[in-house]
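Contributing new records

If you add data, match the layout below exactly. Sequence lines come first and carry their own label; structure lines follow with theirs. Keep one chain per record. Anything else will be rejected by the validation script.
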Amino acid sequence: FRRSIALLPMFQRNQVRFIRRSLRKEFGPDVEAVGGQLLAKGPRTLNTLQTEMAEPPEKISPNQVVQCLLVMVQHGIVNVKREPQKKPTYAVDPDAIHFRVQHTVYVRHIKERFKDEGEILVEALCRHGKLTQKHLLDIATKSLVHMKYTYEQRPEDDSKDSNNLKSCLKRMIKLKYLRRADTLQTKWKDVVIPTKRKIGMQVIQPPPVKKSRKISYEPQEPAYIETYADESLKFRYADSDNAEVFWQLNHPKFMFIFRNRDIGSYVKHRVDKEAQFIVREMLNKYPIGGHEPRPSFAVDQIRDFVKKLNGVKISREGLKQKLTQMTALKLLVTEGGTETSSVADIKNSARAVKYLVNIEGIIEEMKLQHAQSIVKQKFGVEGARIFRLVYNKKRLEEKQVAVMATLEKRIVRGLLQNMLCEGFSNVQDVPKDSSRDHTRMMFLWTVNFVEVCKTLMDRMYFTWVNLDIRW
């Protein structure tokens, strides 16, 4: 507990460095300063933020603060929250920065599926944030022509390029790679899809580094975001070329695809390729968001969509055995979320049993294997063995670890102490009797995996910033 409290400021400091460095790299020092102020002070109203930024050392004018906020709202980095009878507040969304780091992976995935047209569309949205269909297609058409000239290809008819891009855009919307941006309004009681002025009617460029001259008119406050009502969610992926509708990348869709791909690779490593196909098809049937319940599938349902796969031939009995094996390995769970369901229960009620992918359990195991590989790099095979042993057994004394790991006690003591210094293990002192004599204490070694993950994330932030500075 004491160690977790001591490390808490370091987590915040390195994450702030990571976010500020990302903002500076893409949008300049002024946006970095405004974003850093929101990170340091928390949600702020516009007036409060302008007052704080006008003071040394930043000395940023109120107009420039508004422009910086517009840039970050345009790219989804700042969330705007408003309550009745209160002024809107602005706060930085750290997840938006994490998504921006993944943009190169987005582009690579889209190029594999939609070729050059999809790549150009996604690059335009990564660069400009929210765009209307018309503006997005105009930017993409110019980029496509420029790319063909660069690679010395004979440019085709512009109308053909535009049609190809528009067709690609419609397919991406249909497959939910893109979605309508949240509505930006200027009044609290506007309708769900208003026709009033919105941020993003034009591509907002980052503010210049030099201080601009004073402008006579009073700048308007950036509008707040009004999330669509539940009855209007069906319009989120409805195609529209209306000038009032803006489109942005649907980050949960990309995370959904990358997660399913990694889970499929893990299942293939644990079982075989057929199990990978089964899990992949089940995951593809799940909703993208986490709000809707995940459907469960009976054996016959799973067999139906396995039949549609090319190169996969498996009988019903073979499929039942495969599902039983995957359930025993905790890759699947029976309906109701009971991970401890015995294999005998599944065999006796095979017709009634429905299966779900144990997403949380698989991800936890993947994270554990990743942490164990890092421990192996730092402390060798013995250290990785001790780490996994203590994690599985929850609490162990030093002599118990030595016996179970078949290692000498002095080696175990040194490895546990080094892992404690690096944040991969903890030690708890427990009194042996009710007298609580400090000379009669029992020391139990544990692995707080939540703190281990925080430590690894903190080191990732630290390494990313240092590498970016060196480059």
